[in-house]
Amino acid sequence: xxxxxxxxxxxxxxxxxxxxxxPVGVREISRQLELSPAIVQRLLKTLSEHNYVRQxxxxxxxxxxxxxxxxxxxxxxxxxxxxxxxAELQNLAAKHKLNGYIGTLQGNRAVYLLSVQSEGPVAIRxxxxxxxxxxxxxxxxxxxxxxxxxxxxxxxxPGPLTRVTEATMTDPxxxxxxxxxxxxxxxxxxxxxxxxxxxxxxxxxxxxxxxTRAALSVAFARQFxxxxxxEAAAAIVLEAARRLxxxxxxxxxx
Length: 254
What we know:
By secondary structure, the chain is α+β, with helices and mostly antiparallel strands. The protein has helices at 5-19, 26-33, 37-49, 73-78, 80-96, 138-145, 149-156, 172-185, 230-247; strands at residues 53-55, 62-64, 99-106, 109-116, 131-132, 188-191, 198-206, 212-221. Strands 5-4-3-8-7-6 form a six-stranded antiparallel beta sheet, with helices on both faces.
């Protein structure tokens, strides 16, 4: 079934403005989305009437509106996984100085659902709703490992994959080959593949049936955490993910 073209275009405008570092004009939006200025103007008028975008009185350029800030807030209040996960991430930040994240699979990307920053010297910021690569993050590799190799291969595509750093795996076959170790160990590790100098460790959050509902991951800068080994970080992440999985009815016997 075909979707709504107007809705698709409106969402594209919102996503463009949300990602823009500064207000954007109609012609720039038109150019980036390959739409006519007249269509963009109509979309902006409707979105502005509902306060999802706002226009600067002086420059006449547009930015994301205040109404958009409320989208998704009810999910954090009502989703049992996110409520429990937020407490876990806060504990990881306070007790272990780890930046923590919860993410899920959406299309061929991992999408952040929660992000809690520690008070450590390095902030690694990812906002809820932000998408990231599956092949460069511990979270993404955990989500890939929850699939069959055939399913993961389809998601990654033929390659080459986007290179984020010199350590990034760009051959999908290398990523697929690494998934068996992730499944065996129960967690994924990433060294410098997404951010140089940063180690990330992730583990699955499972439902009663054993299906991976989401992934929990932490990140830390090795330079500022020399006492934290990968094994120690993995143990911390596994325990937190195990508690969250237990809350969903999962037991190791499944």
